[in-house]
Amino acid sequence: MGYRQGATRVGQALGLAAVLAFAAAGSNAAGWWWNTAEKAGGAGPITLRVTYSNKVDYEPLMVAVDKGFFRAEGLNVKPLLVSGGIESAEALATGAADVAAMGDAPAVISVCKYPQNKIVCAYGGGSQRHRLIASAQLKTPKDLEGKKLGLQLGSSTHGCFLAWATANGLDVSRVEILNLKPAEIPLAMSTGQLDAMAGSEPWATHTEKQCGARVHELAHFGGHMGTSPMVVLASRRTLEARPEALAKLVRALCAAVAWVNANHARTAAICAPLTGLSLADQETCAYKHTWRVRWEREDTDSLALTARFLQEYGKITALPDLMQAVETRYLQEAR
User: Fold this and answer.
1) CB-hemisphere CA count at 13 Å for 108?
2) Which domains does the chain have, with CATH numbers?
3) Pick from 20, 87, 23: which is nearest to 58 by CA?
4) Beta bridge partners of 122
5) Which pLDDT tens digit goes with each residue over 3-60?
6) Cβ(47)–Cβ(238) below 8 Å
């Protein structure tokens, strides 16, 4: 497969370095947050560093912060913003975050490399949220062969693209895939550096807005990866030392999801300034998602499907034990 790093990858690394600065000098940054609560003897809010992106996929977390659902549960959530789920997985692995939200492919990669971290719940999903925007002259999947495609390697979009390519007879080894930061992809498309992009929202819509009639939606990836869940993972340290905080976190997400489902326009008003979408585009993009806090057999099956594609394409070396990767007791306690 024709993978290579984009010229802007250095910028991505620098952006992530700002987040991972919390992990500087080993676990010193992590210890500061934990020791604050411990010195208080457990009194007052419990501090959790939660990493996610200002993308449509993370509307419930943005709403939970804005509407105070975390505070109502006695949590002092410190948001650590990254550009995609794979960076959330890295932040959790380094100790820069206590809890991380991400899509299915980063979650599978995370539990393969760091099985001590556990999936706590899913809070949304819908594979139609991943879209492939291509130059107008590209009409079929096979037209991508010999062309440049921008996406973020290891992302949920990446996993969905691999499944879609297999289903449509596309030889991905003949596609030049550039590993780019999602926020940089619309500009790369508009300046002719890419022939196509694959991404979730807001980046697919931003690409359409910047490129106009020069591009079109070649495909969405719905139907190829099961429920394509958005999930929450917790670090081993959080699982062992702050289990009560995880039940509180899940309850706050339940409240946020209920509010989002009942208040589409008001949710768009909260999230659009963060994603950079217009109010109308924010609502339109959100309709591609389903929001529900749960963990069900279908979610496990969906991750298993993702894992098989990631292994087939060399992104993981072995399939994870998904029965051991999920800890649902905090979900049960929250209900």
Assistant:
1) 29
2) 8-126+226-334 (3.40.190.10), 128-220 (3.40.190.10)
3) 87
4) 231, 294
5) 554 433 333 433 444 444 444 334 444 444 444 444 444 568 999 999 999 999 999 9
6) no
- DSSP letters of 2-70? EEEE-TTHHHHHHHHHHHHGGG-TTTHHHHHHHHHHHHTTT-SPEEEEEEE-SSGGGHHHHHHHHTTHH
49 within 8 A of 120, measured Cβ to Cβ: no
Residues 116/102, Cβ–Cβ less than 8 Å: no
Hey, what are 190's tokens?
């508009």
Sign of the torsion formed by the C-alpha atoms of 140, 146, 149 and 155 = positive
Model pTM? 0.80
**What single letter denotes the amino acid at residue 170?**
L
For residue 148, give every residue at least 6 positions away whose Cβ sits within 8 Å of its Cβ, in sequence order, or none.
176, 178, 193, 194, 195, 196
Q: What Å distances lie between residue 117 and 233, 234, 235, 264, CA to CA? A: 7, 6, 5, 33
